């Protein structure tokens, strides 16, 4: 028996981004979420608490063991929400923020956001997603992905964690060695908190650029957790 895989997307994205990976994981039970911190209406974007509650709600609907994967910002709500009591057997941080209690995404960057982020009062927009997120991705797929990007909530990026699930659950960090969004040196530092470190020679979105290779890394984790 294989565990169910719950996929939690990063900032500005949605469940749509996982489609090539889900196809590559044929035979694996997969669930996704759409985080409330992402959307088109700046006045209706959710907080980290809302995102964590969405993850908890998804876990409550899954029977049996679950592997929860967070990509990029998605590592933060899974760190806040995942528990063994909710059926979570393993955490996977895919070039993600594996932070500790009291940390926030912006805080982990020293309070300085990268120049490719346009920060407004309530939301953040990405100005150059093609080179930052999609290096190594097919140009046509990149164009479709860029057209679907939303705004991301400022509050979700600045709210500190109240829990660190990786202190209680086994975890794997997947370092993406061509990532232009989260420097490899930062990934390596966060990966020291994980029990296992794997690597992909990929940019920030391997679920689009290398779905088969990413699926091959995930299958053994899912088999062990099941």
From TrEMBL:
Coiled-coil blocks: none
Protein name as annotated: Pimeloyl-ACP methyl ester carboxylesterase
Domain AB hydrolase-1: 5-216
One GO molecular-function entry: catalytic activity
Top-level taxon: Bacteria
InterPro entries tied to this protein: AB_hydrolase_1, AB_hydrolase_fold, Sec-Metab_Biosynth_Hydrolase
